[in-house]
């Protein structure tokens, strides 16, 4: 693959192209096979992940009813990040998304660090999601081996991503549709129950919000734990800006996705948390054991609710696997296109970076094997390293936007189709909020290890990126001298 070097201020063809990469040795580049309906539904369903359906139970158990405040606060931060990312991605659509923006704004080392950190995060997440989906399948079919289900899912989604990008789009379109229908149905049922209009139920009033210790039953410490849990539940929203580069109208797609992010986060996350803590006592053991959505439906006496939600969670996990294999392969391809990875990894065949797809899927499967072979040390180490990785990515997004906004206003103001609100004030607010989350992580024993592990990974990548940047600069200087 042709390699390109982007320096701060450079506006080379590599980052202006919608696909974000140059043509490969095979003579092709990433395709534009995603339709607008694919992108719209990916954006809509991308905010609904397994972390929302299952992981939110731990947050509720810690924060009580104040989990609504925690999700609203972290949701505001995510809205700001998505707005900043949307501004840069609409101005310069690229499959490398924030990695390309970081390289243009700060330097090659920043693009290297954020890009490979995100790739590592997605690959490990693929393994985790495969394990979660396999556990559901073995619950339905006892006696079947978990590893076989994981292998099956890996083969299916690796195959999906090896084919034309429209296949990925179709899978995500239907996965997202089912998730959206499920969450809307849950919200409708919940609102009817809160109003006392659901047959067989009585309006709970504010009893569950103010009883059992009040709105802040575990004080500010519980709220902090809930806030940290909610921040990481939002991970995955970035995929839409990666996918937009392979859509028919990348600028329009990004703009639409970002502009609707606010109501999607408000309705799906904050709205569902409000429904749950209003209907079910926060300290009900079923909230953490079964998951808050199953616990709520069971509380309302909805028949078969447990199995219904298991199907929804399975769909959410499979959707995340599919999207993460896609996102990891495109990020790797973009990094290689900019000379920041093994050349072979970035080769594109028929509009698809197939070597990157295989490598990302293989790494994800290795993570699954490690969960069986070394669950207490190597696998736990991997999990800790990705614990705060998404915050590192968001930090690079905000830092890049501070630089690129001013540069774009000077050089090509017509590209600012999406604009960050109250720039630069809200960008600095977002950066301060991220620093605040890092500080909160350092104060909690459980998250402190994750923070240190992610910090170690980030420093190692930054050093490697800096050394690569220096070596390439030295090589370029020698060529010029000769």
UniProtKB/TrEMBL annotation:
Originating organism: Streptomyces gougerotii
KW Transmembrane (keyword) present: yes
Membrane topology recorded in Swiss-Prot or TrEMBL: Multi-pass membrane protein
Family in the record: Belongs to the amino acid-polyamine-organocation (APC) superfamily. Amino acid transporter (AAT) (TC 2.A.3.1) family.
Bias kind Polar residues: ranges: 1-10
GO cellular component: membrane
Subcellular location(s) of the protein: Membrane
BP-aspect Gene Ontology terms: amino acid transport; transmembrane transport
Stretches the record annotates as Disordered: 1-29
InterPro entries: AA-permease/SLC12A_dom, Amino_acid_permease_CS
Domain Amino acid permease/ SLC12A positions: 38-448
Name assigned to this protein: Amino acid transporter
Main location: membrane
Gene3D superfamilies linked: Amino acid/polyamine transporter I
Membrane-spanning ranges: 41-62, 68-85, 106-127, 147-165, 177-198, 223-245, 265-282, 308-327, 348-373, 379-404, 416-443, 449-468
């Amino acid at each position: 693959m042709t390699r390109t070097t982007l320096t701060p201020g450079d506006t080379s063809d590599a980052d202006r192209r919608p696909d974000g990469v140059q043509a490969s040795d095979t003579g092709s580049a990433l395709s534009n096979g995603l339709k607008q309906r694919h992108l719209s539904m990916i954006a809509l369903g991308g905010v609904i992940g397994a972390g929302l359906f299952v992981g939110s139970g731990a947050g509720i158990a810690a924060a009580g009813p104040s989990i609504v405040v925690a999700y609203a606060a972290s949701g505001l931060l995510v809205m700001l990040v998505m707005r900043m990312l949307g501004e840069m991605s609409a101005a310069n659509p690229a499959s490398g998304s924030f990695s390309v923006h970081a390289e243009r704004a700060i330097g090659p080392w920043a693009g290297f660090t954020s890009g490979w950190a995100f790739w590592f995060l997605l690959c490990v997440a693929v393994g985790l999601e495969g394990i979660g989906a396999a556990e559901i399948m073995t619950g339905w079919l006892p006696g079947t081996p978990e590893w076989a289900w994981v292998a099956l899912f890996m083969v299916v989604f690796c195959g999906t991503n090896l084919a034309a990008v429209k296949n990925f789009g179709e899978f995500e379109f239907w996965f997202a549709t089912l998730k959206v229908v499920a969450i809307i149905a849950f919200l409708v049922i919940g609102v009817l129950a809160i109003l006392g209009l659901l047959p067989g139920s009585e309006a709970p009033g504010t009893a569950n919000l103010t009883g059992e210790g009040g709105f802040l039953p575990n004080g500010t410490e519980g709220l902090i734990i809930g806030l940290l849990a909610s921040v990481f539940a939002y991970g995955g929203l970035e995929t839409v800006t990666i996918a937009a580069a392979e859509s028919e109208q990348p600028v329009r797609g990004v703009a639409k996705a970002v502009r609707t992010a606010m109501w999607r986060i408000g309705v799906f996350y904050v709205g569902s948390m409000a429904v749950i803590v209003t209907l079910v006592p926060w300290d009900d053991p079923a909230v953490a054991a079964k998951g808050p959505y199953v616990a709520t439906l069971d509380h309302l006496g909805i028949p078969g609710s447990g199995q219904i939600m298991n199907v929804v969670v399975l769909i959410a996990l499979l959707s995340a696997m599919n999207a993460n294999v896609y996102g990891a392969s495109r990020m790797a391809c973009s990094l290689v296109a900019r000379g920041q990875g093994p050349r072979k990894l970035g080769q594109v065949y028929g509009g698809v970076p197939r070597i990157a797809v295989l490598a990302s899927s293989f790494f994800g499967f290795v993570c699954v094997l490690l969960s069986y072979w070394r669950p207490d040390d190597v696998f736990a180490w991997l999990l800790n390293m990705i614990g705060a990785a998404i915050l590192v990515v968001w930090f690079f997004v905000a830092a890049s936007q501070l630089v690129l906004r001013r540069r774009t206003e000077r050089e090509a103001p017509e590209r600012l189709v999406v604009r960050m609100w109250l720039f630069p004030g809200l960008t600095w607010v977002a950066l301060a909020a991220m620093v605040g989350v890092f500080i909160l992580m350092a104060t909690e024993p459980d998250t402190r290890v994750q923070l240190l592990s992610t910090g170690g990974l980030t420093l190692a990548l930054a050093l490697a990126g800096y050394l690569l940047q220096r070596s390439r600069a030295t090589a370029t200087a020698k060529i010029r001298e000769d």
